[in-house]
Inverse folding.
C-alpha cells in the first residue's frame, strides 16, 4: 500500500471519528430530553428492560467484524454515559440548591423573617408537659422580645418506657400559648397521618433527626403549606440531609429550615458531635436557612453558649436551645435544658456576641 493510500484511509477514519462523535452527542441530547420528560412524570430511574431491548436490536443488526460481546460492551458504555448525564442534569438542578435559586429563601414566622441575615432564636422545653410549664417559658421568651417557641408533643424516645409526649393535647397547649403570647410555635411531628391535623395548631412542623429519612413523612410535610424545620439525621451525611430537604421541596413545600443538631461519632465527651462546618456548606449548597440546635448537639449546659456563638459566627441563621422551668424534674432531656436563670444569662451573653458581630 502506498503512503498516499494509507493517508486516505486515515483521513476516512478521522471523518468517521467525527461522525461518531456527532452521533454520540446527538444521542446524548436525546437522552437528556428523555430525562427531563421522566422528571416531570416523577419517574427517574434506570430502565433495564428498555436497555435489554436496545442491546438486542443492535446485536440483531450486527454483521461484524466486531463480535456481539464487543458490540455489547461498547454500547453498554454509551448507555452508562447517557444515564450519568441524566443524573448530573438532575443533581445540578436540585430544587433546594443555590444553583437552582441563588437568592436566600426567607421564611416569615409571624413577622420574624428567617434567613434575612439576622440571627433568630428558638427556645422552649424539650417536651410539652403542661400548660403552666410551657407558659412559664413562653413568658420568658416574650420578655426578651423573641418570637419563636418550641415544645415537643410527640416525643421520639430511645426507650419505649420513657415519656412519649402529650400528643394532640400537647399541640392544643402550644396553640393556646401561641395565641395568648403571640408567638410562633414549633413542634415535632413523627407520623405522616398527623400532619394534616398538626398544621391547624402549630406554625412550624419539625421533622426530627430520627425521621430525617422517613420519606413518607417528608412527602406529607411537602404536601402542606406550612414551614418545616428539618433536622439532620443521627448519622446522615450532608448529601443525605440535602436530599431529605429535596423530598419536601419536590412535593411542593419550599419553606424549609435546615437544622444541624450534631451527628454520632466515636467521641463521647459530648452527646453528639456538632458538625459546625456543615453550616457554611449547607449555606453554600442550598438557599435554605440553617439553624444549629446547641442542646442536642452538645448535650451539655456548659457548652451551649460557646456552641451558639460558634454557630452564629460561622453563618447560621438561627440557634435552637431547650429551656425548662425546672430541668431537674423534666420528663425528657433533664440534664441539658437550661432553667430560666441560665436562659436569661445565655441570652444576655449571646446578644452581646451578636452585637459584637455587627
Ligand atoms: C427535639 O428537638 O426535640 C429532638 C428530639 O431533637 P432531635 O430530633 O435532633 O434529636
Ligand atoms: Mn430534647
Amino acid at each position: 500500500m502506498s503512503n498516499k493510500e494509507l493517508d486516505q484511509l486515515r483521513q476516512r477514519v478521522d471523518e468517521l471519528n467525527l461522525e461518531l462523535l456527532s452521533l454520540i452527542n446527538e444521542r446524548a441530547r436525546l437522552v437528556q430530553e428523555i430525562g427531563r420528560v421522566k422528571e416531570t412524570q416523577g419517574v427517574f430511574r434506570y430502565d433495564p428492560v428498555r436497555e435489554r431491548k436496545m442491546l438486542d436490536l443492535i446485536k440483531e443488526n450486527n454483521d461484524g467484524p466486531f463480535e456481539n460481546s464487543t458490540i455489547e460492551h461498547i454500547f453498554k458504555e454509551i448507555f452508562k454515559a447517557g444515564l450519568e448525564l441524566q443524573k448530573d442534569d438532575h443533581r445540578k438542578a436540585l430544587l433546594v440548591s443555590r444553583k437552582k435559586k441563588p437568592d436566600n429563601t426567607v421564611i416569615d414566622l409571624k413577622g420574624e423573617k428567617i434567613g434575612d441575615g439576622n440571627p433568630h432564636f428558638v427556645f422552649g422545653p424539650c417536651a410539652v408537659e403542661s400548660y403552666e410549664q410551657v407558659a412559664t417559658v413562653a413568658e420568658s421568651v416574650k420578655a426578651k422580645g423573641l418570637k419563636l417557641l418550641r415544645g415537643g408533643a410527640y416525643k421520639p424516645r430511645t426507650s419505649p418506657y420513657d415519656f412519649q409526649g402529650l400528643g394532640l393535647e400537647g399541640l392544643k397547649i402550644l396553640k393556646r400559648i401561641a395565641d395568648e403570647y403571640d408567638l410562633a410555635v414549633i413542634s415535632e411531628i413523627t407520623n405522616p397521618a398527623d400532619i394534616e391535623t398538626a398544621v391547624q395548631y402549630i406554625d412550624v412542623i419539625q421533622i426530627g433527626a430520627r425521621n430525617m429519612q422517613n420519606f413518607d413523612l417528608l412527602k406529607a410535610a411537602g404536601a402542606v403549606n406550612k414551614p418545616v424545620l428539618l433536622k439532620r439525621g443521627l448519622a446522615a451525611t450532608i448529601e443525605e440531609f440535602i436530599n431529605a430537604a429535596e423530598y419536601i421541596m419536590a412535593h411542593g413545600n419550599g419553606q424549609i429550615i435546615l437544622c444541624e443538631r450534631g451527628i454520632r461519632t466515636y467521641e463521647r465527651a459530648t452527646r453528639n458531635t456538632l458538625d459546625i462546618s456543615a453550616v457554611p456548606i449547607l449555606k453554600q449548597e442550598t438557599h435554605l436557612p440553617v439553624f444549629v440546635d446547641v442542646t442536642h448537639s452538645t448535650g451539655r449546659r456548659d457548652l451551649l453558649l460557646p456552641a451558639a456563638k460558634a454557630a452564629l459566627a460561622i453563618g447560621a441563621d438561627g440557634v435552637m436551645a431547650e429551656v425548662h422551668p425546672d430541668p431537674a424534674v423534666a420528663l425528657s432531656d433533664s440534664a441539658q435544658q437550661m432553667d430560666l436563670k441560665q436562659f436569661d444569662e445565655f441570652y444576655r451573653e449571646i446578644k452581646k456576641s451578636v452585637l459584637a458581630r455587627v
